[in-house]
Write a structure and sequence with these properties.
Length: 76
């Protein structure tokens, strides 16, 4: 269950998942639904993180470009 917690799954979902698991293989579809839901949440978070990384990379490129122009003008 520590893996489920590491994915950011809520405690109530972890408990629900654990109870379903205790009931055996007849609850596999319900457990898959919980995992699908958590995967969708993580994909949204992943998309947000990738957007943040792209912003930082663009900002760094602007700064590097600016530094390059400053260095060029210092050598003229």
């Amino acid at each position: 269950m520590s893996r489920a917690k590491a994915t950011g799954m809520s405690l109530s979902k972890i408990i629900q998942y654990a109870k379903l698991r205790e009931q055996g293989n007849q609850t596999i579809n319900e457990r898959l639904d919980i995992l699908d839901e958590q995967e969708a949440i993580l994909n949204i978070e992943k998309s947000k993180i990738l957007d943040h990384i792209a912003f930082i990379q663009n900002k760094k490129n602007l700064y590097h470009s600016s530094l390059g122009k400053s260095n060029e003008s210092e050598h003229d």
